[in-house]
Specification:
The complex is a heterodimer of chains A (487) and B (95). Chain A is built from 15 helices and eleven strands. Chain A is of the alpha/beta class. Among the domains of chain A are: 254 residues, Amidase signature (AS) enzymes (Alpha-Beta Complex); 77 residues, no CATH class. Chain A has an eleven-stranded mixed sheet with strand order 1-3-2-4-6-5-10-11-9-7-8, with helices on both faces. In chain A, β2, α4 and β3 form a beta-alpha-beta unit. Chain B is flat and about 55 Å long.
Chain lengths: 487, 95
């Protein structure tokens, strides 16, 4: 029997071949690197490719496998978004500010993946400091959608989503502050999970908006998402906001049936202005879940329409504070032509940050400034409580919520770059989960005019087990398989 | 909600972000447009609502002040743009 191309495997398929010695980890990594070389000139998902260290890690993985000590991710090649710190490998945040920044430590998520024997292939492109919805805000280059090279991959985890879609890695990890894992997952036809706030340690994730940021996996299917989540979750003494709850074996419960599961359809997510093809795709997904025995009902999250405004006050406010560390003194870009400290500071930030980052720093500074704090930041924090309470109330009646992941399929490159408000509207369905800190997953629901679209499931805090089980049941019943781009 | 040029300049100086005239013009107009979108919040009654700074409840986490990675300090200097004799060099603060 001839083996499939190793790069086209899922995690569990590759794992089986690796432990049965039908494929070595080095062969797998070589195959994936070959695939990257063949496709990345078109897609530009990687900022840095670490071929040499990847092959070394793969060789180490082979020795772990030969000792019979392999776990699910041993020898599995992955990409990490370039705002997740990696020892000795540039971590740029797709910004001139950090173009040459080489951390001397790994993010905890990376440490955990390395300890499993997973193979880091390199770093994925993103919107500068994860601020954006199209990956066009990268200082280096935009990433293209593998399903249509003239369309955006979404963002800010555009590189990680496009690389999984183009099968340049078996999985990737991204970060999700307002939808940055789920929105590109929807646009690229892959599975993207934002775990409960604090489920995965944020240590080593370059801070954007600390009360919203969360690392999550992007994978070819739901089962792989469960495997990666198991590996990267858990309490971390280095992140005081990380949860202390035990990490369940998410992958063990995937085949449990969903008969009698109560699924709510929030009516506020089906607005008149929504793309009708997207709405009908989500309606078909709901029907599939109903046929599986789920109990479907309409529910209401009355403060949904305020979520976008709340997010675009809180996230920039936190960002303006977090990004004050870039002063050209301790690390990162430093404007060398000034002698005066204040001039150096202003020029470092003028030339080191791109337009969207400046826009958000200014917006956040304004919302926190004297005279406006109460009207903007404090008000947003109060409305945040109302949005959070909406979810608390609704989860008394239902187990899971189903909604679209994005209002449209991927849009053309360049279409929204000059209009920030239009760009921000992309996150309208993903933002509420971050505001409330709940887990949410985007799963491919099919194609609209050959472009992928995702459906989103949301659950209460720490409901990942139920969320993944439901997603898996849906994926199995929908049965459209991995949406391979023709690249 | 239209921001005046002086307001935009004031915010930029608070944020310590230098900008060109053109940037002031463009970003200023965009900020006004974005702030317009926030007006909807003022229609909500939040008199009795609490503030949420974090989505999950937090506990204070303390540990003993012990050095875990003694090498880190030295390695950290690798990324410092201006340094001298193992110190970070800073431009003069007092004129």
């Amino acid at each position: 029997m001839t083996l499939p191309n190793p790069w086209s495997l899922t995690i569990s398929e590759a794992h089986r071949l690796l432990v049965n010695k039908e494929l070595s980890a080095v062969e797998l990594t070589e195959s994936v690197i070959e695939r990257i070389k063949h496709t990345d000139s078109k897609i530009n998902s990687f900022i840095t490719i670490t071929e040499e260290s990847a092959l070394e890690s793969a060789a180490n993985a082979d020795s772990i496998i030969s000792k019979g000590e392999a776990s699910m991710l041993t020898g599995i090649p992955f990409q990490a978004k370039d705002n997740i710190c990696t020892t000795g490998i540039n971590t740029t945040c797709a910004s001139k500010m950090l173009e040459n920044f080489r951390p001397n430590y790994d993010a905890t998520a990376i440490t955990k993946l390395k300890s499993e024997g997973a193979v880091l292939l390199g770093k994925g492109n993103l919107d500068e400091f994860a601020m954006g919805s199209s990956t066009e805000n990268s200082v280096f280059f935009p990433t293209k959608n593998p399903h249509d090279l003239s369309a955006v991959p979404g963002g800010s985890s555009g590189g990680p989503a496009a690389s999984v879609s183009a099968e340049q890695c078996l999985f990737s990890i991204g970060s999700d502050t307002g939808g940055s894992v789920r929105q590109p997952a929807s646009f690229c036809g892959v599975v993207g999970l934002k775990p409960t706030y604090g489920r995965v340690s944020r240590f080593g994730l370059v801070a954007f908006a600390s009360s919203l940021d969360q690392i999550g996996p992007l994978t070819k299917n739901v089962e792989d998402s469960a495997f990666v989540l198991e590996a990267i979750s858990g309490n971390d003494p280095k992140d005081s906001t990380s949860n202390t709850e035990d990490v369940p074996n998410y992958s063990k419960y995937l085949n449990d049936d969903i008969k009698g599961l109560k699924i709510g359809v929030p009516k506020e997510y089906f607005v008149d202005e929504m793309d009708s093809a997207v709405a009908s795709t989500v309606r078909s997904s709901i029907k599939i879940l109903e046929e599986l025995g789920a109990d479907i009902s309409e529910v209401s999250l009355p403060h949904t329409s305020y979520a976008l405004a709340v997010y675009y006050i809180i996230a920039p406010a936190e960002a303006s504070s977090n990004l004050s560390r870039y002063d050209g003194v301790k690390f990162g870009y430093s404007h060398s032509e000034s002698t005066d400290i204040w001039d150096a500071l202003e020029k470092t930030r003028q030339h080191g940050f791109g337009p969207e980052v400046k826009r958000r720093i200014l917006l956040g500074t304004y919302a926190l400034s004297s005279g406006y704090y109460d009207a903007y930041y404090l008000k947003a924090q109060k409305v945040r409580s109302l949005i959070r309470q909406d979810f608390v109330n609704v989860f008394k009646d239902v187990d899971i919520l189903i909604a679209p992941s994005t209002p449209t399929v991927a849009f053309p490159l360049g279409e929204k770059t000059s209009d920030p408000v239009q760009m921000y509207l992309n996150d309208i369905f993903t933002i509420p989960a971050n505001i409330a800190g709940i887990p949410a997953i985007s799963i491919p629901a099919g194609l609209i005019k050959n472009m992928p679209i995702g459906v989103q499931l949301m659950g209460s805090h720490h409901s990942e087990k139920m969320l993944l089980k439901t997603a898996h049941a849906y994926e199995t019943a929908a049965n459209h398989g991995f949406l391979k781009p023709s690249i | 909600m239209k921001l005046s040029n002086d307001e935009v300049r004031h915010i930029a100086s608070l944020a310590k972000v230098g900008m060109t005239e053109e940037e002031f013009e463009v970003i200023g107009a965009q900020l006004s447009q974005i702030l317009e979108q926030f007006q909807s919040l003022s229609t909500l009654d939040t008199e009795n609502s609490e503030t949420t700074a974090h989505p999950t409840s937090l506990n204070t986490v303390l540990r003993n002040d012990e050095i875990i990675n003694p090498k880190a300090g030295k390695d950290m200097l690798n990324n410092v743009p201006r340094k001298e004799h193992g110190f970070v060099r800073v431009r003069s603060v007092i004129e």
